[in-house]
Each structure stands twice: as C-alpha cells, then as structure tokens.
Amino acid sequence: MFYHIILTDDCNLCCSYCRGKSFEVYEETDGELITIDPELPAELSISLPALYHFLSMDPDAVLTFYGGEPLMRSDLVHEILRDAPVNRYMLQTNGTLLDHIEPADLSRFETILVSIDGPEWLTDANRGTGTYRTVVDNISNLCESGYHGELIARMTVNEKTDIYDAVTFLSDNDDFRFSSIHWQIDANFANDFKSRHFEEWVERSYNPGISMLVRYWLSCMKSEGKVLRWYPFLDPMDDLLSNRPSRLRCGAGYANYSIMTDGNIAACPVMVGMKDYYLGHIASSVPAQLPELPVRGRCTECEILDFCGGRCLYSTITRPWTEDQSSVLCRTITHLRECLTGALPEVTRLMTEGTINPESFLHTKFNGCEIIP
Ligand code: SF4
Ligand code: SF4
Q: How far is 228 from 217, CA to CA, in rounded Å?
C-alpha cells in the first residue's frame, strides 16, 4: 500500500493555486457541506512508535513525505528514514529546500516529485519570484551528487500555461534532467470557475496543445525509439496497450492513503481535516483492512470511466464546480482519450517492429502522480 504522511501544514512558499487560494473568498458550492476539523495540529503530533507499528503490518508499505512543505521538517524526515520499518520512500516537495537535506537521506528516495510549472517566468508567476532559479539549482546539484532515483517534474497548469511549450521546455533542457513529467490542471479544486477564462483556454490552448504533445511524443518514439515518461500519456497508454480498465488513477481511497498530523487516515492528502471521510487511525487500523472510498456522482455513470477512473476523488466529494462547469474539464479528458486511442495503432506497430521496447511503459503506479490532469 502507498501512504502519504503529512509532516507539517507549514510551507515556505505561497503558490497562487495552493495556499494563495485560501486568501480568496468564494461563493458556496453545490457540493456537500464539508466539516473541517479545527483541532487538527499543524505539525505531525503522533507517537512515532505507533506509526512504525502501523507500517510494520504492511510488508509492501511505500511512504511518501508530504506537507505543507515536508522539508520544513527535515529533522522528522531524517528520523523516520532512520527508524521506520519501511523499505520504499518517496518525497513530494516544492524543491526549494532540497539543499537542506543530507545526500545520504536524499539517496533513500526512489522517487522525488518536484513542483515546477515550466519556464522561469511561468513558475515564478505562480510560485513567487526566484523560485524557479532556486529549484533548478537544487535539482542540478541533486543530479550531480549522483541521485539515481526517479525525478519527476510536477507541474500545475492553468490559463497562463501553454501546455506544449511548458512540457517541451521541461522535457528538453540542458540546464537539468528530469526523468519524468507530470501535470495537473488547476481545476475543480475551488469555486473559482466564474472568475476564470477556463473554457476558452481549454478550447483554444490546452486541447490543441495536447494534440501537438501527443504528436511530439509519437515522433520521439519513431525517430529515437524513446518513450518520454510523461505520466498523463504513459500510464493511460500502458493500460490501452493491455486493454485494461483503470480505477481512479491516483489510487486515493483504495491503494493510496494519507496519514494526517494527528494519526487519522484519509483517502487522499488533500482531504486534510475532512473528518467525516476519515477511514481509520494508525493506532487502531490494520493496513489490509482499511475501507475503500470510491468516486461518486456523475463519474459513476460516465461512459469513459474505465479510461478516466474518475479523475479526482476529492472533487467528486466537494464538488466545487457545478455539473456544467465540470463538464468543461471532462472535455479535456475526452480529448486526451481521443488523442491516445488515435495514437494506439502507431504505438502498437512501433512495438511490434521493435522500434520501442514494451518495457519503456513500465512505471510505479500510485507514486503521487495524479495521472488524469
Ligand atoms: S470524464 Fe469526467 S465524469 Fe467522466 S469519469 Fe472522468 S471526471 Fe468523471
Ligand atoms: S487527484 Fe484528487 S483524489 Fe487523487 S490525490 Fe489528487 S486531490 Fe486527492
């Protein structure tokens, strides 16, 4: 099982689509009234032996450090890496504090997801002036220090983003070398649709950009025999090649659980304090017996559910966007599916003739990539 552990709510950045949104005032949504636990501690406040006991019951535990910014608590990262009965670790970080961590600790992570949105102007517009340069310096040093794990660029995209330019910039850049790229659209996480130009951007920019990116992805397979590890393409194409339906691709609520700062267990790391949806507690739960929390609402009757998986469990519960607004977002998923199914015969042909290796599509599921943007 995969677990996120929230070390702290604190963060040294205030990104416009994350902490920055907490300063905006939005109308009430159509979704359920969600009660947030006001008592939830800001810092991890559990007994670490109790955490280790819980994790010891799962021989396949994979633990991902999460926040806030988890490296604000590098002391805890070090202690848990040293003492927990876990063999596999991952880290989701904004990348600005990577230079505060011992190289020996960093080498323990099989995967590090670093937030970066594309070129300098775009990353800094979303994340604050100087963020891009700090992150790029840190990942360059990380690679020079011999880090051998998977280094994933984790982009958040919005109306400022030209998706083709941003992804190709990160994919083909002499200043750094990410192993993989993932992006998620900042959509249906807050009741902000009316203040945005989302629909226009989807039709004029994002969907055409995805068409171009899929063509670029295919062209690299043909010319170099290389399958670029772009998660929104890689994971669904892997399933299409095997004709395999997918559940919620991030795994929240059935393969991926999140440990809150007070030890409660939620389905996903964004469901912080949503106590009505907690699924257990480290002191009393057994990993193999954690209940599932399935996606709900319109997704359950969607004709492309087997491809999409429901995109985001959190959104299906909180429903920040109305049905009509959500359907605009779903058009990006329909479009992604059309592009990938359109590319499928060519990918199959390249595989059959040996231009690309089927193993190029192998990847770790539930590694923090939310897959369907
Ligand atoms: S396309 Fe939209 S409605 Fe369909 S499963 Fe995905 S998120 Fe749900
Ligand atoms: S996609 Fe949604 S449900 Fe999955 S981890 Fe992200 S916020 Fe949670």
A: 7
